[in-house]
Amino acid sequence: MKLALIGYGKMGKIIEEIAISRGHTIEGKASSHNPIEELDFSQIDVAIEFTTPSFAVHHIEHCLDKNTPIVVGTTAWNEQLPYVKTLVAQKEGALLHASNFSIGVNVFFDINKRLAKLMANHTDYVASLEETHHVHKLDAPSGTAVTIANDIMLENDRLESWKLGEESAPEVKPWQLPVTSFRKPDVPGTHIVSYESPIDTIQLSHTAHSREGFALGAVIAAEFLQGKNGTFTMQDVIKF
């Protein structure tokens, strides 16, 4: 498979190594020094995009115009997802987006939804979420944490919104889910869901040991997306 990398920072370089190790080739690299408009998409099978929220939708539009499937790992642009889904359908293109490409995290997402459904009627338990990432991560909470929080609220009618606390837990109303974000050196990513009652605590956690898991998942997502049409997520990949 011939890939284009849209964004060539730390993640892009790791994706390149893993893609080559799996027998793929990198045919183009877009970065701040080499904009996407300079790439030749005529031989590209799939593009993989890890940049910033302000550029993500433009990159999606460009790839759809070039009839190139695109895997998007950038987060914090989801308010434009309805527009993007409509555009994918109109262009008969292919998009796979995810807040986290780790296979383990996506299994975690599925278990989190099942646990939230089980706990919804147990009013003695109070739910909370913590996430810890490296100090260079710009968004808080992480896109992964937002997905976890939204999935919990979908399964629990008593929770109407989540509230962020940075470096300490926020004070919340009974209908709010507390989300606490920590930033520490050299932490790829940890997420912990807790349900605490007066008599015990239930916890579900995922800890990443390196960025390789995210990069491997992105390459697997590109392999999945080749030859397809429509909008997909990593939940489609892990159930394929």
Write a structural description.
The protein has 240 residues and is α/β, with parallel strands linked by helices. The chain has two domains: 127 residues, Rossmann fold (3-Layer(aba) Sandwich); 106 residues, 2-Layer Sandwich (Dihydrodipicolinate Reductase, domain 2), CATH 3.30.360. It has a six-stranded parallel beta sheet with strand order 2-1-3-4-5-11, with helices on both faces. The radius of gyration is 19 Å and the shape is elongated. The relative contact order is 0.17. The mean pLDDT is 95.
List keywords for this structure.
Dihydrodipicolinate Reductase, domain 2; alpha/beta; 35% helix; Rossmann fold; 240 residues; 11 strands; 2 domains; elongated
Would you kindly provide a brief summary of this structure?
Helices cover 35% and strands 27% of the residues. It is of the alpha/beta class and 240 residues long.
Break the fold down into its secondary structure elements and pairings.
Elements: E1 2-6, H1 10-21, E2 25-30, E3 46-49, H2 53-65, E4 70-72, H3 81-91, E5 94-97, H4 103-119, E6 126-134, H5 143-155, E7 161-166, E8 176-184, E9 189-196, E10 201-208, H6 212-225, E11 230-232, H7 234-238
Parallel strand pairs: 1-2, 1-3, 3-4, 4-5, 5-11, 6-8, 7-8
Antiparallel strand pairs: 6-9, 9-10
Helix pairs in contact: 1-6, 2-3, 4-5
